[in-house]
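Supplementary Methods S3. Input chains for the assembly prediction are listed below.
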Amino acid sequence: DADVTQTPRNRITKTGKRIMLECSQTKGHDRMYWYRQDPGLGLRLIYYSFDVKDINKGEISDGYSVSRQAQAKFSLSLESAIPNQTALYFCATSDYRGGSSDTQYFGPGTRLTVL
Amino acid sequence: SQQGEEDPQALSIQEGENATMNCSYKTSINNLQWYRQNSGRGLVHLILIRSNEREKHSGRLRVTLDTSKKSSSLLITASRAADTASYFCATDYSRARLTFGEGTQLTVNP
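Predicted structure tokens for the full assembly:
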């Protein structure tokens, strides 16, 4: 089974709807991240969490919220979806050690289309 | 923006040739990582090089880091069609967060 899973894998929704994307991990990592990727672009950080009680905004958090329900679960919500939130969304985890980042492990992604 | 920038944006080569991708960044970093992404899929970590390292190898991959020029290169030797993917550099400069570049799309023709 995959270590980092995301549900749903694909979602089409309408403007104004509330959407939740879920991420679960079995790697036992404390750190979890949500990114979005737009066509031809790199990943941009939406939110990140260093543990259940430590949640931080990334570079593009407006219009998004998150919930860290447990060490293994990190959900991303779009309270009122808009078309420019159409993108590929990735969850990632890392097992941070010492003074610098370690490898991040990515889920398979959720393709979200907002009409 | 602290984002790394990859060069070239796209690279097309024949199987067996070497592929070189470059990454430049703007501020001091703790480490630099390279990731690979097959079309529409999640990123997969390839290699990490720390700021006090100058070169690192992993199989057919060779990464160099020049902190004085704030640049890194990824060399894939003897490329294969299966190496076709997008390659991203990611820099760790602040509180263990990674900043990704826009990627190099590599196409290896059989």
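Chain B has no helices and eleven strands. The longest strand of chain B covers residues 85-94.
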